[in-house]
Every structure is written in structure tokens, then in C-alpha cells.
Amino acid sequence: MKRPSLTVLFMGALLFLAVFFPGRNYYNFLKNARTEKTQTETREQTITIGVFIPGITSGSPIYEMLARGVLSAAEKHNSDTGTEQATVTVIEGGYNQAEWENKLTAMAASGAYNLIVSSNPSLPDIVSGISEKFPHQYFMLLDGQMSGNAHVYALRYNQREQAYMSGYIAALETEANGGVKRIGLIAAQEYPVMNNIILPGYLEGARAVNPLYTVDFRIVGNWYDAAKAAELTSEMIRSGIQVLLCIAGGANEGVVNTASQLDAKVVWFDTNGYNIRPGTVIGSSVLYQDLAAYYQVLRYLSGTLPFGTTEIMGVNDGYVDFVEIDPLYINAVPEEIRKKQAEMITRIRSGELLLPE
After folding, report:
1. Tell me, what's the pLDDT at 21?
2. Which of 19, 156, 214, 348 matches a 20 to 30 Å C-alpha distance to 92?
């Protein structure tokens, strides 16, 4: 007896499938089955995100925004996908900067996080060394610059714009009071963005008011020593400076308290600081870090984050601004100064005044 040919067997199989799956294309069935399997596997996969806070979250608005933005992105992703796929863990590094590298290294060494997110200008140098030891760990660094590493994405705010707006109002306030043409800047430490962008941008803004302005630049040495910051502030004010910009983390408290006692003014950086010391804080150039964290983490979760690059975001991207509508600003600053400040900001927003980094 002859064995059935392969053609007969094949046709029989197709007839069986046609009967077994009436009204539906078998190949589409297989395709849909594979898709459903993939979606099920995706739902079961967990994407773990670790947020490293280089300090303490509570009482640090810039880090509160960072954590809030990442958590909101994970919630949005999970809501959209109908899963609990994305999870977030927040770890605080504390104020001792010497401990940050060890704590961040421990996070990478644990292998527990698909992505580690952090924000501080000093983080790129730290992450550079860690990435060599753990080359498969992915990082997202906000408020920093690091390009060329295929596992690191960085977003740097246009801090030339931010510093320019700060220097402009510092000079306007000084001019209105007939002070010496010198403004102050107290920073936690020196780092490339501070020395090459913020300090020159601050001076540039002041000199747009009057080209004779100079900046007295002082360093605290860390991000927490309020007593040292108070001492530096007192020295500056007694030398004739009337307005200071402070970028010193927890040490900013010493700047604001001393300025208040000695009848000087402060320009705040990164967050809205008018309510910290109403009447003393006369300007706030802000970063919307919660939005930056939110949208960049969503890009990561969708697989579109451009690792290996640094992106620069500024006023026209919606991540940098100067707070003009706060009643405390309106009460603290004369209308003529506010009007001049507003005109300058309008020029940046319209593109008439370009301040690229």
C-alpha cells in the first residue's frame, strides 16, 4: 500500500485547521497568539527604577521635585498599560558628599535597578567611575552633562539663561538703591557648570544693566554648612554688596538669615524661594525638575530615551523660568524693577534675546 504523499498530508492538515478554526484565518490566529504571549510576558516583567537623592528629600524642593516626577511617570506608565510593571525606590545619600559614591556604587552593584535616576552637577564625575565598574547599569542624570557613554543619559538645563535672569534682577535692585556695582554669588563648590556657565551668565545679566558690574564669588566647600555660608554672606554685605545669589543647598539657610538681619537681598536659584524669607528674597529663577523627570522617565519606559547624549533644555522648552506672578515677589520688588525684568524675560521667550550654552 502506498504511503500518502506529503502534499496529501499537508492539504489534510489545512482542511482540519479550516474546520477546527471556522471563519478565521489560521495564520492570523498564530500571529495573534504570539502577540498575546508577548504582551503577557511584558506585563509580567518588572522595570525597577532607583532614585538616588544626593542629600535629603524632605525640605529640599529640587529633590522633592525629582522624586515626585519619577513616581508620577511610573504611575502614568502603569495606568496606561494596565500593569504594575514600573516600580520606584527612593534612596537618600545624605548631606555628606564623600558618601555619595559608595552609596551609588552599592545601588549599581546590587543589580536591582534597570535605571538609576539622580540630579546634581557633581554626579557625572561620580557616575563615570561607577559606570566603568558596572558597564551594564543604565543612568539618567538631570542637571548634569555626560555624553558618549551608551548607558548614561543626561539633561542639562540652560543655566546661562537661568543665571542671566538672576544677575539682571540683582543689578536692577542694586541700581535702584544706589549701591556699589558689585553683586555676590555664594556657591557650595566649584564645578564646570558653575565656573563656566552660571558665574559668567550671572555676570552677563548684571552687565546688561550696567557694564561696570563685577561679581564677588565665594565657596562654602560643601552643600550643608550654613554657618560658613552665613560668615561669607556677612563679609560680602559689609563690603558693600546688597544682593546675593546663593546656590549652596542646605547652606543657603545661612545666606538668607544673614541677609535678612543685615538688610540685604537674595536671589534664589532652582525653586520658588519667595516664601522662604518674604521681603528678603527678591527673585527666583527656577527649574521645573518634576516635569523634566516625568517626561524623561516616560521616554525611558517607552524605549525612546537617547542614551549616550546630553540634551539642553531652557526657557522655551518649559523647564527654565523666572517666577513673576507670585504675590510675594510683587510685594517685595518695586513695579519699575519688575517691569524691566519682565521686558528682559519676554525677549528671551520670544527668541529676540538668545542665550545658548
Report:
1. 44
2. 156
